[in-house]
Design a protein that fits this description.
Layout: E1 2-7, H1 11-21, E2 27-33, H2 38-41, E3 46-49, H3 55-64, E4 69-72, H4 75-79, H5 82-88, E5 92-94, H6 102-105, H7 107-116, E6 125-128, H8 134-141, E7 145-149, E8 158-160, H9 168-180, E9 185-189, E10 193-203, E11 207-209, E12 214-215, E13 218-220, E14 224-227, E15 232-235, H10 246-267, E16 272-282, E17 285-292, H11 299-304, H12 311-320, E18 334-342, E19 354-355, E20 366-368, E21 371-374, E22 377-380, E23 386-392, H13 395-406, E24 413-414, H14 422-434
Parallel strand pairs: 1-2, 1-4, 2-3, 4-5
Antiparallel strand pairs: 6-9, 7-8, 7-9, 10-11, 10-16, 12-15, 13-14, 15-18, 16-17, 18-23, 18-24, 19-22, 20-23, 21-22
The protein binds glycine.
Glycine binds next to loops.
């Protein structure tokens, strides 16, 4: 019997728990959560709602349930040293220790690592603690710049020229705002192209790459509106993306491999977990936008729902450091994932309203996120609510299924109808051609 702890309680963690539950191995799954996710309640042996960022609390829960290994879903527990605490009591953990998680938690750390180890894909950048040199660097970059808060900000710390900042004056004001809040920041060249996510299982030495996925961060159709955690994602049946060349994927894989190696050299111990590179294919090749130290959300729903290899075997190989002995296989299916989100999301999401999923016939590929069951009713609790994945032989087929099912989720919600459609993908192909 394997006893597994999953930390976190969104749709990503629902996808993780589902993948674990599909293992042929005898198992009991425990969850430390921030909310009563109805999808987790049905599968887990026990769910405890508590502070998932408290290393001692997590350690005690793991001891109590004699956990064999743990998977950390979100980034905040990584930042707070939860993986370190679990390894201290010999609970192998999928999710890096605090030092190694800096790959996500510090933008300057990642840029400096790429520079120090001569890893390709690093745009021109500079790190700042005060206003010294800011104006000069902005002048050097001209109209194409990004200002990034150097820490975790739930996706809200990045401001891009043209989108959020319309002049150097505005950029300088934002930098001053960050300084006033006590935060260092990074300014770097804005990259133009099409973004994609490449997640790799990493055991400290060996990497095994997952299919590449494209996320849609903007709230509204045609990639407009405010940035969100991600409104939906797709991947193709050959595990590539229509707008990418094989060389783009190869280079992204190489960057993940070199980054894992650099982390190992820097800290004298390996990164164990999911290394998620947020890349962009530009006219100058593939560049790294940022790293995340965990599964993407929604990307986890795309890849884990087509995973053919036993997920418990993969997790144990990551902990043991022998991923190279395991052949990890994904089904040759295209996937489209769409999120239904509350009206007003992301800036003023409504809360406390009822969601009706009774018309969704096949719930196998439905994932609960920011939602709880109260007196037999499903109630929104203020963020991305329900995700639904469609599978098919083509992205077109997968999109039709995802769209049909997500449209049946009723309530004060909206979703992006355009994600995964032929029209939007053609726009992305045209965009790539236009920047060549
Ligand atoms: N899909 C974006 C993220 O997980 O951060």
């Amino acid at each position: 019997m394997v006893r597994i702890l999953v930390i976190g309680s969104g749709a990503r963690e629902h996808a993780i728990v589902k993948a674990l539950s599909q293992s042929k191995r005898a198992k009991k799954i425990y969850c430390l959560a921030s909310n009563h996710n109805p999808g987790l309640i049905n599968i887990c042996e026990d769910i405890k709602i508590d502070n998932i960022n408290d290393p001692d609390l997590v350690k005690n829960y793991a001891k109590k349930h004699e956990i064999d290994f743990a998977i950390i879903g979100p980034e905040n527990p990584l930042f707070n040293g939860v993986a370190d605490a679990l390894w201290d009591i010999e609970v192998g953990t999928i999710g890096p220790k605090k030092n190694l998680a800096q790959i996500e938690t510090s933008k300057s750390f990642t840029r400096n690592l790429l520079k120090e180890y001569k890893i390709p894909g690093c745009p021109k950048y500079k790190t700042f603690k005060d206003m010294d040199g800011v104006e000069e660097f902005l002048s050097l970059l001209g109209e194409d710049y990004v200002v990034k808060y150097d820490g975790l900000a739930g996706g809200k710390g990045v401001k891009v020229s043209g989108d959020h900042l319309h002049s150097h004056k505005e950029a300088i004001l934002y930098c001053k705002e960050l300084i006033a809040k006590g935060g260092p920041f990074v300014i770097e060249r804005k990259l133009v192209g099409e973004e994609f996510s490449l997640m790799s299982f990493c055991d400290g030495q060996n990497l095994s790459h997952m299919p590449v996925v494209q996320d849609h961060k903007r709230a509204y159709e045609n990639d407009t509106g405010p940035n969100t955690g991600g409104m939906g994602t797709y991947s193709d049946s050959d595990h590539k993306l229509p707008f990418l060349e094989d060389s783009h994927i190869k280079l992204a894989q190489k960057i993940n491999e070199q980054t894992a190696k650099a982390l190992n050299q820097k800290f004298g111990e390996g990164y164990k977990g999911i290394l998620y590179g947020g890349f962009i294919a530009t006219n100058a090749g593939v560049q790294l936008i940022e790293y995340n130290a965990r599964f993407g959300d929604p990307e986890a729903m795309n890849v884990l729902s087509i995973l053919d290899t036993d997920f418990i075997d993969i997790c144990e190989s990551i902990v043991a450091g022998n991923l190279n002995m395991l052949d990890i296989v994904f089904k040759n299916l295209a996937t489209v994932c769409k999120y239904a989100v509350p009206d007003g999301y992301p800036d003023n999401p409504i809360k406390g309203e009822e969601v009706d999923i009774s018309n969704v016939k096949n719930k196998d590929l439905m994932f609960y996120a920011s939602v709880e069951r109260k007196k037999e009713k499903l109630i929104q609790i203020g963020s991305r609510t329900i995700a639904i994945v469609g599978h098919g032989d083509s992205i077109w087929e997968a999109e039709q299924i995802a769209e049909k099912n997500i449209s049946k989720v009723k309530g004060p919600l909206f979703h992006r109808k355009d994600i995964g459609t032929t029209e939007l993908i053609q726009k992305k192909l045209n965009h790539m051609l236009s920047i060549k």
